[in-house]
Amino acid sequence: MILPFSGRKDGLSVSEALPDRSLFALVAMMSFLAALTLAGATGARALSARWAGGAAQLVTVQVPDPDQPLTPTSKKEPAGPTRAEAVLADLNTLPPGSVMHRLDKEELARLLEPWLGEADNSALPLPAIIRIRLPDNAQLPNDLEQTLTAHVPGTIVEHNASWGERLRALANSLLACAGLALLTVGGIATLVTGLATRAGLSTRRDIIKILHGLGASDGYIAGRFAWRTAMLGLGGSLAGTVLAMVPLLVLFRMAAPFANISLQSDTLLLPAWHTLQSLLPTDMLVAFAALPSVAAFICWFTTQRHALLWLRTLPYLP
Question: Model's pTM, two decimal places?
Answer without folding.
Answer: 0.63
